[in-house]
Amino acid sequence: MSNRRCLLYKQLITCSALLLLLCHNTSAQQEAADTSKKVSAHYGSKGFEFKTADDKFLLQVQSRLQFRFSTPEDQDPVTFDDFTGITKPAFRINRARLKVGGHAFKPWLKYYWEYELSQSNLLNYTIMIEKWDWLKFQVGQFKVEYTRERRISSGEQTMVDRSVINREFTLDRQQGAEIYGRLKGKGIADFNYWAGVFTGTGRGSTTNDDNHLMYFSRLQWNFTGRYLDFEGSDLEIHKEPAGVLAVSGVTNQSPYTRFSQAGGGYLEGYEDGKPGQYRVTQANIETALMYKGFSWQSEFHWKEIIDKLNNDHTDNLHGYYIQAGYFFHEALHWWPKPLELAVRNAGYNPNREADQTKKRETSVAANWFFNGHKNKLTAETSYFNYDKTGGIPAHQWRFRLQWDISL
């Protein structure tokens, strides 16, 4: 009897041990599963970041504020009459942005949206598939990579704002789809490409006006074998030169002859366009280089406007800018490390019978970087010189002070 009891006790102990082991394994599996879904939070380069342990989900939230004082006024002179009008010095919150991005389900399935709080505008909303370096895809509303100056964020520029030619040549934000990627070969055989199809009617417009879509392409040669991101100032202090040479082209037919954050708009002399009235073809040659604290970028633009409702009347517009910045502490040991000096020269010629005004801008800026582009102070002085048909000159000085901070 005692032997049977001993045997029974042994069997009970064995069953209990197996049951405990099974429960432990189940609990461990549940704990491991729960752990993979746990969210960690920290502050990173793109604001507050919330990330699951299995890296399937990432949420980044960042806000940006831009405070600006300008005198005698803030906006670039557009017409000859702007030099004789009433000037209005300004102190304002120039930009107030909320940025949200990250990835979902897979690290290569990314999303991003950006909202302008001060004007209640939804600027960007994009889904990106970036599984392979050589072939990527995005769809939504975003800045077209037609010009380096416009593609660089307003918070990551070398100067206070973009040049005087941005108004005439930018494509700004469009709705559509794009493929892009990097073809990395050996040595200097290093290229990036972009190709997209868009509605061609600007930010906030979901439909095309006349069934003629906007077609865009860009080919970029990374001639030093290193990729240079869309960012101003050589904050990284590149030890090896990083340079690009890019060619971009676009064609579109719509009521509009220019674009901005507000959407489709008109250059002077083309107001109130009708659907499909203007066939616009543009091309841009672009260079950029960063090396040991020195940064360079330039663009040379050509733009053809054909009025399809007025006997195919054609106008050709030309514009350029060249810009350079340097952290002089790379050459002078006594120079403050956070201080950068920069200069820009830009020009625009509409080449129209109705307006032969040649527009020129020369600007000098000083940047003090408290924490890179995330917290910087910029002082800029600009000189505008417009030479109107008939040799009537006009000129104006402007000073701007700007604090840009991302939180």
What this model shows, in words?
This protein has 407 residues and is mostly beta strands. It has one domain (63-100, 113-406): Porin (Beta Barrel), CATH 2.40.160.10. 11% of the residues lie in helices and 52% in strands. The protein contains three helices and 20 strands. It has helices at 2-36, 148-151, 166-169; strands at residues 39-44, 47-52, 57-71, 90-104, 106-116, 121-129, 136-143, 173-184, 190-198, 214-221, 242-254, 258-260, 263-265, 278-291, 294-307, 313-326, 339-349, 358-369, 375-388, 392-406. The strands form two sheets. It has a 16-stranded antiparallel barrel with strand order 3-4-5-6-7-8-9-10-11-14-15-16-17-18-19-20. The chain has a two-stranded antiparallel ribbon with strand order 12-13. The longest helix is centred in the first third of the chain and has 35 residues, at 2-36. The N and C termini lie far apart (78 Å). 31% of the residues are buried.
Helices and strands, with pairings:
Elements: H1 2-36, E1 39-44, E2 47-52, E3 57-71, E4 90-104, E5 106-116, E6 121-129, E7 136-143, H2 148-151, H3 166-169, E8 173-184, E9 190-198, E10 214-221, E11 242-254, E12 258-260, E13 263-265, E14 278-291, E15 294-307, E16 313-326, E17 339-349, E18 358-369, E19 375-388, E20 392-406
Antiparallel strand pairs: 1-2, 2-3, 3-4, 3-20, 4-5, 5-6, 6-7, 7-8, 8-9, 9-10, 10-11, 11-14, 12-13, 14-15, 15-16, 16-17, 17-18, 18-19, 19-20
Pfam families: Porin_O_P
Protein name: Porin
Organism: Deminuibacter soli
